[in-house]
Amino acid sequence: MSVDTQHAPAGLTDEELATLDAHWRAANYLSVGQIYLMANPLLTEPLRPGHVKPRLLGHWGTSPGLNLVHTHLNRLIKARGLNALCVWGPGHGGPAVLANSWLEGSYTETYPDVTRDAAGMARLFRQFSFPGGVPSHVAPETPGSIHEGGELGYSLSHAYGAALDNPGLLVACVIGDGEAETGPLAASWHSNKFLDPVDDGAVLPILHLNGYKIANPTVLSRIPETELDDLLRGYGHEPIHVTGHDPAAVHRAMAEAMDTAADRIAALQRAARVGGATDRPRWPVIVLRTPKGWTGPAEVDGLPVEGTWRAHQVPLAAVRDNPEHLRQLEQWLRSYRPEELFDERGAPRPDVLACIPEGARRLGATPHANGGLLVRELPLPPLERYAVEVDKPGATLHEPTRVLGELLQDVMAATADRRDFRLVGPDETASNRLQAVYGASGKAWQAATLPVDEHLDRHGRVMEILSEHTCQGWLEGYLLTGRHGLFSCYEAFVHIVDSMVNQHIKWLRTTRRLPWRAPIASLNYLLTSHVWRQDHNGFSHQDPGFVDHILNKSPEAVRVYLPPDANTLLSVADHVLRSRDYVNVVVAGKQPCFDWLSMEEAKAHCARGAGIWEWAGTEDGTREPDVVLGCAGDVPTQEVLAAAQLLRRELPGLAVRVVNVVDIARLLPSEEHPHGMTDFEYDGLFTAGKPVIFAYHGYPWLIHRLAYSRTGHHHLHVRGYKEIGTTTTPFDMVVRNDLDRYRLVMDVIDRVPGLAVRSAAVRQRMADVRQRHHVWIREHGTDLPEVADWSWDG
Description:
Blueprint: E1 2-4, H1 14-36, H2 63-80, E2 83-88, H3 94-104, H4 106-110, H5 118-127, H6 155-163, E3 169-176, H7 183-188, E4 202-209, H8 219-222, H9 225-234, E5 237-243, H10 247-273, E6 283-289, E7 299-300, E8 303-304, H11 323-334, H12 338-341, H13 350-353, E9 397-398, H14 400-414, E10 421-425, E11 443-444, E12 456-457, E13 462-464, H15 468-480, E14 484-490, H16 498-511, E15 523-528, H17 546-551, E16 558-561, H18 566-578, E17 583-587, E18 593-594, H19 599-608, E19 610-612, E20 627-632, H20 634-650, E21 656-661, H21 679-686, E22 692-696, H22 700-707, E23 716-719, H23 730-736, H24 741-751, H25 755-758, H26 760-780, H27 785-788
Helix pairs in contact: 1-2, 1-3, 1-5, 2-3, 2-10, 6-15, 14-18, 18-19, 20-24, 24-26
Protein name: Probable phosphoketolase
Organism: Streptomyces incarnatus
Domain Xylulose 5-phosphate/Fructose 6-phosphate phosphoketolase C-terminal: 590-792
């Protein structure tokens, strides 16, 4: 459907049109002022170079279109009494959203020094993209925002995440046409196949086609409208087009488009909620075509600007030095007729505010954009209900994630009425052994089903789509609006969201410094199908580097846990699901794993984060150990315990200490991470001068980086993944990377003073087993019997 701006029906009265236009002009004026001015906000005197900022930063091109959307959302919300949230996707659209927040009063309520008068307007202008001020994009500092606009591609998935389990919420999402070219955005169009019209809210995408990126045309603005329609209809949407450049005509068309979209959404929800309709809805999408830099300078220095890529950032770049640019800026600002928009004190006049809804219905004041105000404690059951019995270490085996799945099933069941917990992942819930959750909730699905399908449910809260970006975006939107969740993923492929988690961590770090932002539930990753048990899928599936990436980030916001067995995984899961304002990464295996600690022992060990397993070592407490075997991760822990067992048999006089690390940040100094150890703690655990052989789940240099400043660092030798992998046997993976028990024994002999000569025969036997292993697997295709059938006999 197209709304012809030349002959649009007169849905608005002339009075309504005048007030909408006044609001839009005021927002445009404030947007330009933020980019350029540091004084004389109301132009009460002729503009001088000293009134202009010395560094002109910001993005004008997208701002008038965003202002138009904000103005018309205000009208829609007020007229229909809606609860709404808007996700602003175009990059660096900050001037527009800040302007509208100031106009509606939510900005002043959040920052009382930025008053709704001339003095406050001056502060609003000066602080924008200014040292000590606010960013140029829609950042955490912006009231009403859940979306960090600095990186493109995630707006639509965030919007759908916000709408999930929010049946009374309309989430508008403005998508820039540059942003629409990104892979994450393209995949997120499919989110409408997962949106339940009964239990979820609605998402109204608004594709803003202003034609250009920073220096090039955009793809979707240059393809024929019929082709774009086919694309959007193929995605399952019904497009409504608004196209034009004459403000009055566009206002009328936009009002009609908004009303049409809202009517369709209401009808679709009514059909599902009251009429029992089960057909997948075809939701509306608005395609808005307006000029880039609309209402700005038409031409600068003889070159066209409005409606071109030159309007993207700062159209007049030399205002302080070029009198003609200064004259054009003043003419541009005065074209909005600020004297009609603001009174002599600088306050917005009544006509400007006529379209704005009241209270929490304002887009800058909705509690859905400050999810910590809405979040409730998750009803977590006692862990003892799921704990595996451990009479002695290493006597039984369990699949840790399968045990965790039983806990998650009960969390799903306990939140069935509240609907504030979701499990997301790329097609891997059952593969990751979490399928017990299907006993409480199926997989969200609105598309067609076949008899062979399993666990698909129109109202399900398990979400699977083979797009890690979309999973991440859904969960971020869900958490930021006050709910809880867990992202389960193959370890190697969580790297796909490296950049997205960067942005979320930056968001969390910033919000910690904003007292008005209430803490939200943590973003929790469960990484399984990990590097050491991807022997069947091969090299492409073997990458433990996400932990390195996370530990590069803000220490106050990131946590990494490597539980070595089922009970420690339960303890860690309980902790991260209760936590707030963190990104928690939990790495745990799904294959059968020895049970080392009872539930009580697991809780104590996880609370410490790192500790001595006295039962595994051979030190007697009368002297320092001769060597420390450290480990972090399930497979490295097993290899260290197997090595300790070999040392007890082969070198019974050697005093061996075994230290297991669950919380990897414990290795950092206490001044560098809140979970870090003091030097006294670290030296007490690992000693200050004895050899430490550390078997680590991931890349070995991470452990060196974490512990580089410790007294005994030159005695630390780390074994881990060395980017050597293939399709092979499980034990061959550790052998290829020199993490196996036999290599660890050889390392001990090489590094404990005096052992190299005295224990040369032992070392030779270890090397011989490694050689026999290579021959055996090539002949039999399985691991050596003494490895495959190994058990702890300490």
